[in-house]
């Protein structure tokens, strides 16, 4: 059998090659020059991520997106998500420099594992074949388990990583069982688009595989009821890792969800949309309600990220062009505001050694810059008008109204109002209250190398959070073009009502045999 | 030759036993073993399908090899984490993990 | 029924008994060491099923990797870690019974699903699976094959980092704890089993 190299269309994966090369270079530089060069590794990583982003942008619309004989589809949808993942990885590097030094964690391996997770997430957002999806998902997951246990002399970190590994491996086992059923139902196909026409008439068995697959994916999205690991893992892992998990790994999960559902289950769109309506409502309600009761900042952000995932799922659940493009836009704004909040948390905990919410009180008097960054990011997460988060939510709800999904809009609005309470509580604490003991002992004297990069990152994310709101109209058209040029989303209807919540479960049953 | 359904039933039974172990085990290593049972159930499914439905392309066999590879990596990582925990805490019983609440 | 069919049927029954019996032992037995050895038996039984299904290469890989590596790793972990007898937890508790019922329901669901699908069985093809698998790894499955190598490299690096012993130099008073999170724990750790909800 002769393989035509041109048929591989291997050029579509240049960004991934560059990430891999950076990974190897970081490993080798550390091996050869040891401690002397360890200061340069984060900048080397940043350089690699930058080059990868630069090579990714010209691939915006490729004539032939299918590469590696169908394993990977480099369509505009994947380009958008890969760009999100690269940016979130780069911002994570900015916030880890000081964190790694101060906790004296091994430097090189951290960036190597982070690059590995980035690679896995990028591959996951473009995979269109089941074996590839599985390998990319596991690359992302295994590196995440390792990163969350990276502070290995800390019991909380150990436990977080073990819990993450056990629940993650179990959920990927369930996901795999669903995929093995799909392989059989389709009579031996592993390409998602080949599977779709072969399972259309199956009825109940196909729905069973759908449920298994959705359960597996929702673990990555930490949607309620598959969220149990989230708060523990977020609290116990090093904060930069949490930041990456809450943005990069979630973005990859959403890319996977969109691609898997639209390519393999277009014939069951009503059923999976109903499923995602339920998941979105549960996530929005539970995430926001439980977040109110939290006393630790990291745990609060964990529950808030569950709720935010619920908002993003609105776009998936309505399943229209507008839905998908509002999803992409919201993930884009969520990226900056959430990473900005995490950077502020990193800076505060490095200086005071705590992440209790009460410890933030009176921070304005000691560090106005940190207060400003954290306030803007939290207010944007809450969806307060002039900031990017508001426009993101507005567009999501507007898309939902267009397809008459009023239940979703109702729950979205009510829970957003509830969420304002706990976000604004922190802002009020920082601005109005008397300084806490931790804040009184607050000093910038301990600041050393790496604080500057962290501050640069905070500046970037805050500016993006403010400016993206103004730039929204061009971004909307950008997202729309990317969706138009994505073949797998072509058959999507432009606006169909999905206002029901509980039907669909009984509808499918037995038109199979 | 036993039929395809017979093999699939074995896979399904193994999957359910693994699932039971996953929920009831209190020991981290036993949970890891239950996960290995799940993955073996998946492999039996894949190879049965590959033999009966896809004998020309045997994609299921290739998929199963990926599953085996990843399972080995996952087990190695899992046991490294278990060792790290054991050094810090002297136990790997799941009941005793309540530093972070569920 | 010809002789070879009879042999296949008998070996299928024996292998199934080994796999399912072993698996039940893995989840039900109290002793971790016994469970781990039974797990090895399950892996070998599954390899036998693969041979019945004409997947000789996968069967060999299963024995080499699962029995030779995964199972040995698990045994190592148990021997290194489990100094005490595991807790005296009753195997039959109401909670476990409910879980068992749920799992039985799941099995029934899967079985219904298996019998509902009209499988399009194809005639077996005689081929050398090793050659075919090699060809496909370097054509159709090239990308996952390469990514799997990155995955193995990273798993190795990470596992070494986590499992290796650290030699920490003496640190001055007031310096942060090495290799720990900078955030202090919220309160003193409660390790009593009753502390769980």
From TrEMBL, chain B:
Stated EC number for the protein is: 7.1.1.-
Q: Which Gene3D superfamilies match?
A: 1.10.287.3510
User: What organism does the UniProt record list as the source?
Assistant: Gloeobacter violaceus (strain ATCC 29082 / PCC 7421)
- The keyword ATP-binding appears for this protein: no
Task: Please list every transmembrane segment annotated in the UniProt record, as residue ranges.
Answer: 6-24, 31-50, 62-86
Q: What does this protein do?
A: NDH-1 shuttles electrons from an unknown electron donor, via FMN and iron-sulfur (Fe-S) centers, to quinones in the respiratory and/or the photosynthetic chain. The immediate electron acceptor for the enzyme in this species is believed to be plastoquinone. Couples the redox reaction to proton translocation, and thus conserves the redox energy in a proton gradient. Cyanobacterial NDH-1 also plays a role in inorganic carbon-concentration.
Q: Which UniProt keywords apply?
A: Cell inner membrane, Cell membrane, Membrane, NAD, NADP, Plastoquinone, Quinone, Translocase, Transmembrane, Transmembrane helix, Transport
Q: What is this protein called?
A: NAD(P)H-quinone oxidoreductase subunit 4L
Q: Which GO terms describe its biological process?
A: ATP synthesis coupled electron transport; photosynthesis, light reaction
Q: Name one GO cellular component term.
A: plasma membrane
Which molecular function terms from Gene Ontology are attached?
A: oxidoreductase activity, acting on NAD(P)H, quinone or similar compound as acceptor; quinone binding
Q: How does it sit in the membrane?
A: Multi-pass membrane protein
